Protein backbone atom coordinates (compact mmCIF):
# COMPACT_ATOMS: atom_id res chain seq x y z
CA UNK A 1 0.00 0.00 0.00
CA UNK A 2 2.85 2.36 0.87
CA UNK A 3 4.50 1.68 -2.49
CA UNK A 4 1.24 2.40 -4.33
CA UNK A 5 0.94 5.72 -2.51
CA UNK A 6 4.48 6.62 -3.61
CA UNK A 7 3.61 5.81 -7.21
CA UNK A 8 0.49 7.97 -6.96
CA UNK A 9 2.56 10.75 -5.41
CA UNK A 10 4.81 10.64 -8.48
CA UNK A 11 1.77 11.71 -10.53
CA UNK A 12 1.35 14.89 -8.48
CA UNK A 13 3.71 17.04 -10.62
CA UNK A 14 1.53 16.35 -13.66
CA UNK A 15 -1.63 17.30 -11.76
CA UNK A 16 0.02 20.45 -10.45
CA UNK A 17 1.02 21.66 -13.91
CA UNK A 18 -2.39 20.77 -15.38
CA UNK A 19 -4.04 22.74 -12.57
CA UNK A 20 -1.91 25.78 -13.42
CA UNK A 21 -2.73 25.37 -17.12
CA UNK A 22 -6.45 25.27 -16.29
CA UNK A 23 -6.54 28.15 -13.82
CA UNK A 24 -4.24 30.69 -15.48
CA UNK A 25 -6.03 31.19 -18.85
CA UNK A 26 -9.43 31.26 -17.14
CA UNK A 27 -8.29 33.84 -14.59
CA UNK A 28 -6.64 35.87 -17.35
CA UNK A 29 -9.84 35.84 -19.43
CA UNK A 30 -11.92 36.78 -16.37
CA UNK A 31 -9.63 39.72 -15.59
CA UNK A 32 -9.89 40.90 -19.19
CA UNK A 33 -13.67 40.91 -18.86
CA UNK A 34 -13.74 42.64 -15.47
CA UNK A 35 -10.91 45.10 -16.11
CA UNK A 36 -10.71 45.58 -19.89
CA UNK A 37 -8.94 48.93 -19.64
CA UNK A 38 -6.38 47.93 -17.03
CA UNK A 39 -2.82 49.15 -17.56
CA UNK A 40 -1.50 45.59 -17.70
CA UNK A 41 -3.67 44.69 -20.67
CA UNK A 42 -2.80 47.92 -22.48
CA UNK A 43 0.85 47.09 -21.86
CA UNK A 44 0.44 43.79 -23.69
CA UNK A 45 -0.36 45.65 -26.89
CA UNK A 46 -1.96 43.86 -29.87
CA UNK A 47 -1.07 40.43 -28.47
CA UNK A 48 -3.53 41.02 -25.63
CA UNK A 49 -6.42 41.18 -28.09
CA UNK A 50 -8.22 37.79 -28.23
CA UNK A 51 -8.55 38.26 -32.00
CA UNK A 52 -4.79 38.64 -32.43
CA UNK A 53 -2.95 35.72 -34.08
CA UNK A 54 -0.38 36.04 -31.27
CA UNK A 55 -2.97 35.81 -28.48
CA UNK A 56 -2.64 32.05 -28.00
CA UNK A 57 1.15 32.40 -27.88
CA UNK A 58 0.69 35.02 -25.16
CA UNK A 59 -1.61 32.75 -23.14
CA UNK A 60 0.81 29.85 -23.57
CA UNK A 61 3.71 32.03 -22.41
CA UNK A 62 1.82 33.09 -19.28
CA UNK A 63 0.76 29.50 -18.52
CA UNK A 64 4.25 28.09 -18.81
CA UNK A 65 5.80 31.01 -16.92
CA UNK A 66 3.38 30.47 -14.03
CA UNK A 67 4.02 26.70 -14.05
CA UNK A 68 7.79 27.23 -14.11
CA UNK A 69 7.78 28.78 -10.62
CA UNK A 70 6.42 25.83 -8.57
CA UNK A 71 8.15 23.25 -10.76
CA UNK A 72 11.54 24.94 -10.35
CA UNK A 73 11.07 25.28 -6.58
CA UNK A 74 10.08 21.62 -6.23
CA UNK A 75 12.99 20.40 -8.32
CA UNK A 76 15.62 22.69 -6.79
CA UNK A 77 14.70 22.37 -3.12
CA UNK A 78 13.26 18.87 -3.18
CA UNK A 79 15.72 17.10 -5.48
CA UNK A 80 18.69 19.10 -6.75
CA UNK A 81 20.01 20.32 -3.38
CA UNK A 82 19.69 16.86 -1.85
CA UNK A 83 21.56 15.15 -4.68
CA UNK A 84 23.93 17.87 -5.89
CA UNK A 85 26.96 15.67 -5.17
CA UNK A 86 25.75 13.25 -7.87
CA UNK A 87 24.99 15.93 -10.45
CA UNK A 88 28.25 15.99 -12.34
CA UNK A 89 26.72 15.47 -15.76
CA UNK A 90 28.68 14.82 -18.92
CA UNK A 91 26.68 17.19 -21.14
CA UNK A 92 28.46 20.32 -22.34
CA UNK A 93 29.24 22.42 -25.45
CA UNK A 94 31.34 19.64 -26.98
CA UNK A 95 28.47 17.15 -26.73
CA UNK A 96 25.64 19.32 -28.07
CA UNK A 97 26.10 18.18 -31.69
CA UNK A 98 24.80 14.59 -31.39
CA UNK A 99 21.75 15.76 -29.41
CA UNK A 100 20.89 18.42 -32.01
CA UNK A 101 21.31 15.92 -34.84
CA UNK A 102 19.15 13.48 -32.91
CA UNK A 103 16.41 16.11 -32.63
CA UNK A 104 16.66 16.79 -36.36
CA UNK A 105 16.52 13.09 -37.17
CA UNK A 106 13.63 12.30 -34.85
CA UNK A 107 11.57 15.27 -36.05
CA UNK A 108 11.71 13.83 -39.58
CA UNK A 109 11.46 10.17 -38.52
CA UNK A 110 8.07 10.92 -36.97
CA UNK A 111 6.70 11.12 -40.51
CA UNK A 112 6.66 7.32 -40.44
CA UNK A 113 4.60 7.34 -37.24
CA UNK A 114 2.19 9.86 -38.75
CA UNK A 115 1.83 7.63 -41.83
CA UNK A 116 0.86 4.73 -39.58
CA UNK A 117 -1.59 6.87 -37.63
CA UNK A 118 -3.16 8.12 -40.88
CA UNK A 119 -4.13 4.50 -41.57
CA UNK A 120 -5.50 3.58 -38.15
CA UNK A 121 -6.72 6.90 -36.69
CA UNK A 122 -7.21 9.28 -39.65
CA UNK A 123 -9.87 11.39 -37.92
CA UNK A 124 -7.66 11.98 -34.89
CA UNK A 125 -4.79 12.98 -37.16
CA UNK A 126 -6.97 15.47 -39.04
CA UNK A 127 -8.12 16.96 -35.74
CA UNK A 128 -4.51 17.24 -34.65
CA UNK A 129 -3.51 19.06 -37.85
CA UNK A 130 -6.38 21.50 -37.36
CA UNK A 131 -5.33 22.00 -33.75
CA UNK A 132 -1.78 22.91 -34.79
CA UNK A 133 -3.05 25.42 -37.34
CA UNK A 134 -5.30 27.09 -34.76
CA UNK A 135 -2.87 26.93 -31.83
CA UNK A 136 -0.62 29.84 -32.78
CA UNK A 137 2.39 27.51 -33.05
CA UNK A 138 2.87 28.58 -36.67
CA UNK A 139 2.55 32.33 -35.95
CA UNK A 140 6.23 33.18 -35.66
CA UNK A 141 7.14 36.01 -33.30
CA UNK A 142 9.06 36.67 -30.10
CA UNK A 143 6.12 35.28 -28.13
CA UNK A 144 6.12 32.18 -30.35
CA UNK A 145 9.82 31.65 -29.62
CA UNK A 146 9.30 31.97 -25.87
CA UNK A 147 6.11 29.87 -25.75
CA UNK A 148 7.39 27.11 -28.05
CA UNK A 149 11.18 26.95 -27.89
CA UNK A 150 12.13 28.30 -24.45
CA UNK A 151 9.48 27.66 -21.79
CA UNK A 152 8.03 24.23 -22.71
CA UNK A 153 11.42 22.45 -22.60
CA UNK A 154 12.16 24.03 -19.21
CA UNK A 155 8.80 23.26 -17.61
CA UNK A 156 8.23 19.84 -19.15
CA UNK A 157 11.74 18.51 -18.56
CA UNK A 158 11.75 19.68 -14.95
CA UNK A 159 8.30 18.17 -14.43
CA UNK A 160 8.70 14.77 -16.10
CA UNK A 161 12.39 13.93 -16.40
CA UNK A 162 13.41 16.01 -13.39
CA UNK A 163 10.74 15.38 -10.74
CA UNK A 164 8.42 12.59 -11.91
CA UNK A 165 11.08 10.12 -13.04
CA UNK A 166 13.00 10.73 -9.81
CA UNK A 167 9.88 10.06 -7.72
CA UNK A 168 9.15 6.80 -9.53
CA UNK A 169 12.72 5.64 -8.95
CA UNK A 170 12.50 6.75 -5.33
CA UNK A 171 9.35 4.62 -5.04
CA UNK A 172 11.45 1.60 -6.01
CA UNK A 173 11.00 1.42 -9.78
CA UNK A 174 14.08 0.53 -11.83
CA UNK A 175 15.08 3.10 -14.42
CA UNK A 176 13.37 1.44 -17.39
CA UNK A 177 10.02 1.25 -15.57
CA UNK A 178 10.34 4.80 -14.21
CA UNK A 179 11.18 5.99 -17.71
CA UNK A 180 8.13 4.32 -19.27
CA UNK A 181 5.83 5.64 -16.54
CA UNK A 182 7.02 9.24 -16.81
CA UNK A 183 6.74 9.00 -20.62
CA UNK A 184 3.17 7.74 -20.24
CA UNK A 185 2.31 10.73 -18.05
CA UNK A 186 4.08 12.98 -20.55
CA UNK A 187 1.75 11.64 -23.23
CA UNK A 188 -1.31 12.20 -21.02
CA UNK A 189 -0.13 15.76 -20.35
CA UNK A 190 -0.59 16.70 -24.02
CA UNK A 191 -4.33 15.90 -23.78
CA UNK A 192 -4.52 14.83 -27.43
CA UNK A 193 -4.43 11.32 -28.89
CA UNK A 194 -1.93 12.04 -31.68
CA UNK A 195 0.34 14.21 -29.56
CA UNK A 196 -0.01 11.76 -26.70
CA UNK A 197 1.24 8.86 -28.83
CA UNK A 198 4.34 10.55 -30.16
CA UNK A 199 4.96 12.35 -26.85
CA UNK A 200 5.11 8.93 -25.17
CA UNK A 201 7.91 7.79 -27.47
CA UNK A 202 9.65 11.14 -27.16
CA UNK A 203 9.37 10.90 -23.39
CA UNK A 204 11.20 7.58 -23.39
CA UNK A 205 13.95 9.05 -25.56
CA UNK A 206 14.22 12.16 -23.36
CA UNK A 207 14.51 9.99 -20.26
CA UNK A 208 17.23 8.00 -21.98
CA UNK A 209 19.19 11.19 -22.69
CA UNK A 210 18.97 12.21 -19.04
CA UNK A 211 20.24 8.78 -18.04
CA UNK A 212 23.14 8.83 -20.52
CA UNK A 213 24.29 12.37 -19.75
CA UNK A 214 23.17 12.52 -16.11
CA UNK A 215 21.86 15.99 -16.95
CA UNK A 216 18.51 17.62 -17.62
CA UNK A 217 20.29 20.11 -19.87
CA UNK A 218 20.64 17.32 -22.44
CA UNK A 219 16.90 16.63 -22.60
CA UNK A 220 16.09 20.36 -22.53
CA UNK A 221 18.42 20.94 -25.48
CA UNK A 222 16.86 18.10 -27.46
CA UNK A 223 13.36 19.30 -26.58
CA UNK A 224 14.05 22.89 -27.67
CA UNK A 225 15.55 21.89 -31.01
CA UNK A 226 12.85 19.28 -31.60
CA UNK A 227 10.16 21.94 -31.12
CA UNK A 228 12.02 24.24 -33.50
CA UNK A 229 12.48 21.59 -36.19
CA UNK A 230 8.92 20.35 -35.72
CA UNK A 231 7.38 23.80 -36.22
CA UNK A 232 9.44 26.31 -38.18
CA UNK A 233 11.49 23.85 -40.24
CA UNK A 234 8.54 21.53 -40.84
CA UNK A 235 6.41 24.47 -41.94
CA UNK A 236 9.16 25.64 -44.29
CA UNK A 237 9.57 22.18 -45.80
CA UNK A 238 5.81 21.80 -46.31
CA UNK A 239 5.91 24.82 -48.63
CA UNK A 240 8.66 23.50 -50.90
CA UNK A 241 8.84 19.71 -50.50
CA UNK A 242 6.76 17.36 -52.61
CA UNK A 243 5.86 13.81 -51.53
CA UNK A 244 9.15 12.43 -52.86
CA UNK A 245 11.28 14.91 -50.92
CA UNK A 246 9.22 14.36 -47.77
CA UNK A 247 9.78 10.61 -48.07
CA UNK A 248 13.49 11.17 -48.66
CA UNK A 249 13.67 13.47 -45.62
CA UNK A 250 12.03 10.73 -43.55
CA UNK A 251 14.61 8.14 -44.64
CA UNK A 252 17.48 10.55 -43.95
CA UNK A 253 15.88 11.33 -40.58
CA UNK A 254 15.78 7.65 -39.61
CA UNK A 255 19.43 7.19 -40.59
CA UNK A 256 20.41 10.35 -38.71
CA UNK A 257 18.50 9.18 -35.63
CA UNK A 258 20.27 5.81 -35.57
CA UNK A 259 23.68 7.42 -36.08
CA UNK A 260 23.10 10.07 -33.39
CA UNK A 261 22.00 7.42 -30.88
CA UNK A 262 25.11 5.41 -31.72
CA UNK A 263 27.34 8.45 -31.12
CA UNK A 264 25.58 9.25 -27.85
CA UNK A 265 25.93 5.70 -26.57
CA UNK A 266 29.58 5.57 -27.59
CA UNK A 267 30.57 8.85 -25.95
CA UNK A 268 28.62 8.67 -22.66
CA UNK A 269 28.82 6.55 -19.53
CA UNK A 270 25.53 6.57 -17.59
CA UNK A 271 25.59 6.19 -13.85
CA UNK A 272 23.81 3.24 -12.31
CA UNK A 273 20.90 3.56 -9.92
CA UNK A 274 18.75 6.60 -9.23
CA UNK A 275 20.27 9.51 -11.12
CA UNK A 276 18.95 11.94 -8.52
TrEMBL record:
GO BP terms, alphabetized: CAAX-box protein maturation; proteolysis
Span of the signal peptide: none
InterPro entries per the UniProt record, alphabetical: Rce1/LyrA-like_dom (IPR003675)
GO molecular function (one): endopeptidase activity
Keywords attached to this entry: Hydrolase, Membrane, Metalloprotease, Protease, Transmembrane, Transmembrane helix
Keyword Transport: no
One Pfam family it belongs to: Rce1-like
Domain of life the protein comes from: Bacteria
Membrane-spanning ranges: 7-35, 55-77, 98-121, 137-155, 167-187, 193-210, 215-232, 244-262
Domain CAAX prenyl protease 2/Lysostaphin resistance protein A-like: 141-229
Protein name according to UniProt: CPBP family intramembrane metalloprotease
Organism the protein comes from: Blautia liquoris
Lineage: Bacteria, Bacillati, Bacillota, Clostridia, Lachnospirales
Amino acid sequence: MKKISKYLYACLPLLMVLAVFFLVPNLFALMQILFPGAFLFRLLGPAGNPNSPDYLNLISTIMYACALIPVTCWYFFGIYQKHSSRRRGSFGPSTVGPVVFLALGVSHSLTLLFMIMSIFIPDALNSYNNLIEDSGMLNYSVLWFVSTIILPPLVEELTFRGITMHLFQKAGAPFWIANILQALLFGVFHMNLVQGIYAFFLGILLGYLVKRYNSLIASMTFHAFFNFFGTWLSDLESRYFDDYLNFLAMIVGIILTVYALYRIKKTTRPRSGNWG
